[in-house]
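The protein record quoted in full:

***
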Amino acid sequence: GWHPHLHTLLFTRHPLSKAQIDVLLQFLYGRWSDVVVAAGYRPPHSEHGLVISRGESAGDYISKICHQGLGHQGLAAEISQAGSKKGRLASRTVPQIIDDWGDYRRESDRLLLLEWLTGMRGARHLTWSKGFRTQYLPTEQPAQDSDPSTAEFVCQFTGQQTDFLIQYDPTLRWRIPEAAKKHGRPGVMAELASFNFDCQNVPARSPPQAAA
């Protein structure tokens, strides 16, 4: 099921000894466990709920990511997309559920996606410690901080239209931005035209329900 999942990069002034890492692990586990329990979940596993790995193993970690199917997204996706990591055993990630919904139209998948969208709304996928980015990346301007006045306007959806689109087909959540990126407004219009969606007037009726 859904569970809290974070990747955190810690930078220390000096290498930590095993004893120091053990103390840090106990401290962080206590903080993490308190937060998880306060959110209504059971305490994290004492051995697997929080793991500290040394930076020397970063190369092996990146290699593992490539073999997990994250492909070209690489380390950035592994760290920032906490809700999209490859599932273990028979579990699925959100992108995999989206693909299954697109292929099979199972009602259970649609409900899972709606539950995930509700829970992740407004969530922050990347957080910097105060002053850290300014100190180490003073000349960088992340994409999310770019000047919107220089961006190309493609189209704009109201909240009601967005809700309707996602309820109609959850895969549109990523298909429309991808179409805008590759083909601009014509690409978005083509996606909408595929199911006769009127951008000017959202149908008053409820979106059609997929067959189970």
Q: What stands out?
A: Residues 139-207 form one domain.
